[in-house]
UniProtKB/TrEMBL annotation, chain A:
The keyword Transport applies. The keyword Nucleotide-binding does not apply. Belongs to the binding-protein-dependent transport system permease family. This is ABC transporter permease. It is found in: Cell membrane. It comes from Devosia yakushimensis. Residues 102-318 form the ABC transmembrane type-1 domain. InterPro entries: BPD_transp_1_N, MetI-like, MetI-like_sf.
TrEMBL record, chain B:
Belongs to the bacterial solute-binding protein 5 family. Residues 103-498 form the Solute-binding protein family domain. It is found in: Periplasm. It comes from Devosia yakushimensis. Residues 1-27 form the signal peptide. InterPro entries: SBP_5 (IPR039424), SBP_5_dom (IPR000914). It comes from the Bacteria. Keywords: Signal. This is Peptide ABC transporter substrate-binding protein.
C-alpha cells in the first residue's frame, strides 16, 4: 500500500509539469497581454494611459520577452523558492492574494457541502426506500426545480428578497459595519445571517444531483440478495439500510471527492460575482480577463494540484470503503 | 441649488487663475473644527486647529449653505483598478478643475504663474500646510518627487508625456519663500489642465519625502532589503512603486496625504475601503470651519454592477452616479426614490456620442481600404441611418441625432460639424454610395467592391455595452437596405484592443469622447489620428505615437496637418490660444468626416440622499473631470 502511494505521488510530478506548461500556453493564447487589457479597461472608462508609460511597464513586467522565458521565470520561482510571482494587476505577490481569499472560500464551500450532504442523504435514502410515494415525487420535484433554476438568477432573486423584505445589506458576506471589524460574536452572527443566500444558491443545484444519484444507487442495491439475507437474519431495518446498501451506494460520492477539492477553490465563480463574495472565484475570473498571467496561472496550477491530490484521496478512501476495490 | 446654465463655456486663461480665494473673511472669529477632533485637542493628543491649518487656508464656498459635522458617506465601486477612490477621496492636487469645468483653479497651491511661452510654472505654496500625519508640506517635497521619483530612471523608466517637453522631463526648483518652479525644456501649454485630471494625483503621491525616503534605496541603502522582504516585493523599485503608483498607494495605510479623508482600511481589492477625516486638511469654509464636514467615507468594493444598483435602491448608497447611471438601470433607480430615501441629480456625460461608428481607413485589405477612405461612402452610410428611430427604440427618446462633435454650448462647438449628414434618406444614401464607385451589386442586392467581391465587414463593440450592440443590430438593417453588409461583432475589450494594436480592426462602435472643451483638448483621439484608439485610421494613430511602430503608416496630408496643429496646441501658452488652434484642427475633422455619429449621449442620473446637502444638481461626468471631485465632496454634509 505504501509503495502504491509513493508511486502515485511520483507520477504526479511529470503530470504537474505538463499541466503547468499547458496552463501557461492557454493563458498566453488570446491576443494581447496584460497591458493591452489594462489599456482597454481604462479606455472603456474613457481614461487613457501614456504610451511612454506603457512601454516602460512592458519592459518592467518582462512582457516583451518570448513566452518561454516568461514561463521559466514563473515556474523556476515556484519550484526553487516557492514564489508564485507577482500579480500585475494587484502589484502584490500572487501567494498573498490567493491565501488571503482562500479562508472565506473554504468556509463557504465546506458549509455548503455539509448543507448539501445533510439535505441530500436523508432525502435520497427516503426517496429510494419509499419509491413512487408522494414524498418521493415531492422531493424529486423540488430537486429538479433546484437543478433547473440558474444559480445566478436565484442569487439575484434571493438578494432582492433579502434587501426588500429583510432589510439586509446587499452583497458580500458581511454588513458594511463588520467588513473590517475584528472577529467577534457579532461578526460571526453577521456572517451567518449573510451565509444562507450563498449556501442555498450553491446548494440547490448539487442537492438535486445528489438526491438523484443516491436514490438510483440505493435502488440498485435494495433488491440484491444480500439485503434480503440480512433482513432474514433479523437486522433492524434502519441499521440494515445504513450498514450495507447505503455504504455501497456511497461509492460515487467518494470517488468524486477528488473534484470537491478544486471546487473548494474555484467554486461557483458566477454566483460569487453576483453576490460579491470575497472568495477566490471572482479573483480568478478577473485575472483571466486582465490577462494577469502569473495570478491566473498560479490559480489553475493550484487547482490542478488539488485535483490530483483529491483523486489520490478518493482512491484511498474507496479502497477503505469497498473491499472489492482493495483486493482488485 | 445651482442652475446648470453656468456650465456654459466661459474659458478663462490659465494664467489668470492666481489669487482666487486668498483672504479669509472669518479670521476674526478663529477656526472651528469637528467635535471628534476638538476632543482630541482637549485630550492633548492633537495640536490646536490653528496650528494644523495653513496660516492662510483655502476657503471653499459651500454651494448651498455652511454645513455641520458628522456622518458617513457610503458609496460602492467595482473591484480592480477602478478610479472611484481617486475621484471621491483623492481629488487633491496643486491645481484642480473648477466645478463648472471652465478653468483650472488653485487647490493645494495658493497660486500659479505661467510665463509667456509656457515653459515655466511658478507655484506658491501655502505656508503651514501639513501632511495628514502632521509633518509640514514644503517645496522640498516637490523637489524630492521630481529628483528621486520622476527623474529616477529606475522608478520611472519613461516619464509620462504630460510631464515632458522637448524630450526632457520637467525640472522642479525651490525658489524659496514657498515658491517652486516647474521648468520645461520646451513649451507645455496643457500642463495645468493635465494636472487637474486623474494624472495629477501622481505628483502629491510621490511627494511626502519624510515618509518615502525609507523606501528609497538611495536614502536607506542598509534597511531597504529588509523592507522589500517584509512586503514580499520583488525589488525595491517595485516596493517604491507600490507606495506611489495607482492603485498600490491605496493599499498603504501609512501614506501621508493632503486629501480630506485618510484611509483607515486599505483598498485590498475586496470588501471595503474606509477613509476617516484628515485632521490636517488645509481647507476651511466661509465661516472658518475646517473641512471636510463628513466624518467618514466608505467604499464597498463589489464584483457586480447589479449588486451596486440593488444597494442604491435599498438606500445603502448616499451619493453616487457611476455604475448605477446606465440607461437600463434608470427606471428602477427613479422608481425607488422614496424607498431608498434619495433624490436624483444629473450626471451629464462628457462624451459626445452614445455610439459612434468608425471604419478603419488604414485597413490591410485594399478593397475595404478603398471604400472606407472614400468620404462619399461614409456620407452615404450616415444618411442611411434612421437616428430618430434609434433614439426612440434604444434611448427611450432621451437622445438626439448628433454627429461625433463637441457638445452645444462649448467653445469648440461647430454646428455644421454636429449636424451634417444627419438626415435619414435612403435615396440620398444610395446616390452617395453609387458615387463612391460601388454601384454594382450581387444577386442578393449587396454592393461589390473593387475586387469584385461583396463589401462585408465587422464592427466591434463591447460585450459589456449591450445597448450599443442593440443599436448596431438596427444599423445593420439600415445598411442592408442600401446594399452594405455589416456584421456587429461583440467582443471582449482586450481582444478589441489587441486588434487595434496590430491594425487588424475593420471598425468599431464606441462612445464618443471630446464633448467638453477640456476633454477634446486633452484626449483628442476621435478628432484626429492620435493613437491606436483612433480606430478610424489606426495605422496613422500609431504613426503619431511612434513612426517606427511596425504597424504604423504615413498619414494623409490632412491628418498630418492636424498632427502639426495638435503639437502647437500642446505648446500654446494660454487656453484661448489652445482652443483657437483646436478649432482649426476640428475644421479639418469636420471636412474629412472621419467618423459616423448617431445620437448625443442622453443625460444620466445619479442619486443623493435627501438629507445630504451642497451636492450640485448637474455634474459633468467623466474620469477626466474626476467626477465628483471638482464638485467639492469635502463640503457635502448631512442635515441633522
Amino acid at each position: 500500500m505504501v509503495g502504491y502511494i509513493i508511486r502515485r505521488l511520483l507520477y504526479m510530478i511529470p503530470m504537474m509539469a505538463v499541466i503547468s506548461m499547458v496552463t501557461f500556453i492557454i493563458i498566453q493564447l488570446p491576443p494581447g497581454d496584460f497591458l493591452t487589457a489594462m489599456t482597454a479597461r481604462l479606455a472603456s472608462q474613457s481614461e487613457s494611459i501614456d504610451p511612454g508609460v506603457l512601454a516602460g511597464l512592458r519592459e518592467r513586467y518582462g512582457l516583451d520577452q518570448p513566452w518561454v522565458v516568461q514561463y521559466w521565470k514563473w515556474i523556476s520561482g515556484i519550484v526553487l523558492r516557492g514564489d508564485f510571482g507577482q500579480s500585475f494587476d494587484w502589484n502584490k505577490p500572487v501567494s498573498e492574494l490567493i491565501w488571503g481569499r482562500l479562508n472565506l472560500t473554504m468556509v463557504v464551500s465546506v458549509t455548503t457541502l455539509i448543507f448539501v450532504w445533510a439535505v441530500a442523504f436523508p432525502i435520497g435514502i427516503y426517496s429510494a426506500v419509499r419509491q413512487y410515494s408522494v414524498g418521493d415525487y415531492f422531493a424529486t420535484f423540488l430537486g429538479f426545480l433546484g437543478l433547473a433554476i440558474p444559480n445566478f438568477l436565484l442569487a439575484l432573486v434571493l438578494m432582492f428578497v433579502s434587501a426588500q423584505y429583510f432589510g439586509q445589506s446587499v452583497g458580500g458576506l458581511f454588513s458594511p459595519d463588520y467588513i473590517n471589524a475584528a472577529w467577534s460574536w457579532g461578526k460571526f452572527a453577521d456572517l451567518m445571517s449573510h451565509m444562507w443566500i450563498p449556501i442555498i444558491v450553491l446548494g440547490t443545484g448539487s442537492t438535486a444531483a445528489l438526491i438523484r444519484i443516491m436514490r438510483a444507487n440505493l435502488l440498485d442495491e435494495l433488491n440484491k440478495p444480500y439485503v434480503d439475507m440480512a433482513r432474514a437474519r433479523g437486522l433492524g431495518e434502519i441499521r440494515l439500510l445504513l450498514k450495507y446498501p447505503v455504504r455501497v451506494a456511497l461509492n460515487p460520492f467518494i470517488s468524486t471527492v477528488g473534484w470537491v477539492l478544486p471546487h473548494l477553490v474555484s467554486g461557483a465563480v458566477v454566483v460569487s460575482i453576483v453576490l460579491s463574495l470575497p472568495t477566490t472565484g471572482p479573483l480568478l475570473l478577473s485575472a483571466l480577463f486582465a490577462q494577469d498571467m502569473y495570478l491566473a496561472g498560479s490559480f489553475i496550477l493550484l487547482m490542478s494540484m488539488l485535483t490530483l491530490i483529491g483523486t489520490l484521496i478518493s482512491d484511498l478512501l474507496l479502497a477503505w470503503l469497498d473491499p472489492r476495490i482493495r483486493n482488485g | 441649488m445651482q442652475n446648470f446654465g453656468v456650465l456654459r463655456r466661459q474659458v478663462v486663461s490659465a494664467v489668470a487663475i492666481a489669487m482666487l480665494a486668498s483672504t479669509w473673511a472669518g479670521a476674526a472669529f478663529g477656526f472651528q473644527e469637528a467635535p471628534q477632533l476638538k476632543a482630541l485637542v482637549d485630550a492633548g493628543s492633537l495640536p490646536p486647529v490653528e496650528e494644523r491649518l495653513p496660516t492662510n487656508p483655502l476657503v471653499l464656498t459651500p454651494l448651498e449653505s455652511v454645513g455641520s459635522y458628522g456622518g458617513t458617506w457610503r458609496t460602492a465601486t467595482f473591484g480592480g483598478g477602478d478610479s472611484e477612490i481617486e475621484r471621491t477621496i483623492g481629488y487633491s492636487r496643486l491645481v484642480r478643475w473648477n466645478f463648472e469645468w471652465t478653468e483650472v483653479i488653485p487647490d493645494i497651491a495658493e497660486s500659479v504663474e505661467v510665463n509667456a511661452d509656457a515653459t515655466e510654472y511658478v507655484f506658491t505654496l501655502r505656508a503651514g500646510t501639513r501632511w495628514s500625519d502632521g509633518e509640514p508640506f514644503t517645496a522640498d517635497d516637490l523637489v524630492f518627487w521630481n529628483e528621486n521619483v520622476l527623474r529616477n530612471t529606475e522608478i520611472t523608466p519613461s516619464p509620462p508625456a504630460w510631464l515632458m517637453a522637448g524630450g526632457e522631463p520637467v525640472k522642479v526648483e525651490d525658489l524659496g519663500d514657498n515658491k517652486v518652479a516647474f521648468k520645461f525644456a520646451a513649451p507645455n501649454g496643457l500642463f495645468l489642465m493635465n494636472m487637474a485630471t486623474v494624472r495629477g494625483a501622481d505628483i502629491l503621491a510621490g511627494a511626502p519625502a519624510h515618509y518615502l525616503r525609507q523606501f528609497h534605496k538611495e536614502f536607506n541603502p542598509d534597511g531597504i532589503e529588509a523592507l522589500v522582504k517584509a512586503a514580499g516585493a520583488t525589488d525595491w523599485v517595485q516596493l517604491f512603486n507600490n507606495k506611489v503608483g495607482f492603485p498600490g498607494r491605496w493599499r498603504d495605510l501609512g501614506r501621508p496625504t493632503l486629501d480630506p479623508w485618510v484611509m483607515s482600511s486599505p483598498y485590498s481589492g475586496t470588501t471595503q475601503v474606509v477613509g476617516e477625516r484628515n485632521p490636517y486638511y488645509p481647507k476651511v469654509d466661509t465661516e472658518g470651519n475646517q473641512l471636510p464636514y463628513i466624518d467618514r467615507i466608505t467604499i464597498d468594493v463589489m464584483e457586480d454592477t447589479q449588486a451596486i444598483i440593488l444597494k442604491a435602491i435599498s438606500g445603502d448608497i448616499d451619493m453616487q452616479n457611476r455604475f448605477i447611471e446606465t440607461t437600463d438601470a434608470r427606471p428602477v433607480i427613479v422608481q425607488n426614490r422614496e424607498k431608498g430615501g434619495y433624490d436624483l441629480f444629473i450626471a451629464r456625460p462628457a462624451w459626445s456620442n452614445a455610439l459612434l461608428i468608425t471604419l478603419n481607413q488604414t485597413h490591410k485589405n485594399p478593397a475595404l481600404r478603398a471604400v472606407f477612405s472614400n468620404k462619399d461612402f461614409r456620407i452615404g452610410l450616415s444618411h442611411a441611418i434612421n437616428r430618430e428611430e434609434l433614439n426612440q427604440l434604444i434611448y427611450a427618446g432621451q437622445a438626439k441625432p448628433y454627429q461625433a462633435a463637441p457638445r452645444e454650448g462649448t467653445a469648440l462647438y461647430d454646428e455644421q460639424m454636429a449636424t451634417q449628414y444627419l438626415e435619414y434618406n435612403v435615396d440620398l444614401a444610395n446616390e452617395y454610395l453609387d458615387k463612391a464607385g460601388i454601384a454594382e451589386r450581387d444577386a442578393e442586392g449587396f454592393r461589390l467592391g473593387s475586387d469584385g467581391k461583396r463589401i462585408t465587414f465587422a464592427i466591434d463593440a463591447l460585450t459589456g455595452s449591450p445597448i450599443q450592440v442593440d443599436a448596431l443590430e438596427m444599423i445593420q438593417r439600415y445598411w442592408r437596405a442600401v446594399g452594405i453588409d455589416m456584421q456587429p461583432r461583440p467582443a471582449e475589450r482586450s481582444l478589441i484592443f489587441a486588434r487595434l494594436q496590430t491594425n487588424d480592426n475593420d471598425g468599431l462602435g464606441w462612445v464618443g469622447g471630446g464633448g467638453y472643451d477640456f476633454l477634446g483638448l486633452l484626449d483628442p483621439k476621435w478628432y484626429f489620428p492620435h493613437e491606436q484608439e483612433s480606430s478610424f485610421a489606426t495605422a496613422w494613430g500609431l504613426y503619431y505615437q511612434n513612426p517606427n511602430d511596425p504597424n504604423a503608416e504615413e498619414p494623409s496630408p490632412a491628418a498630418k496637418k492636424q498632427m502639426d496643429l495638435y503639437r502647437q496646441v500642446q505648446e500654446a501658452p494660454t487656453v484661448e490660444a489652445a482652443l483657437a488652434l483646436m478649432k482649426e484642427l476640428l475644421a479639418i475633422t469636420r471636412d474629412e468626416f472621419y467618423i459616423i455619429g448617431t445620437n448625443l449621449e442622453p443625460d444620466r442620473v445619479g442619486i443623493v440622499k435627501t438629507n445630504m446637502h451642497n451636492v450640485p444638481d448637474v455634474i459633468p461626468s467623466t474620469s477626466f473631470y474626476m467626477m465628483p471631485g471638482p464638485a467639492k465632496p469635502e463640503t457635502f454634509y448631512y442635515a441633522q
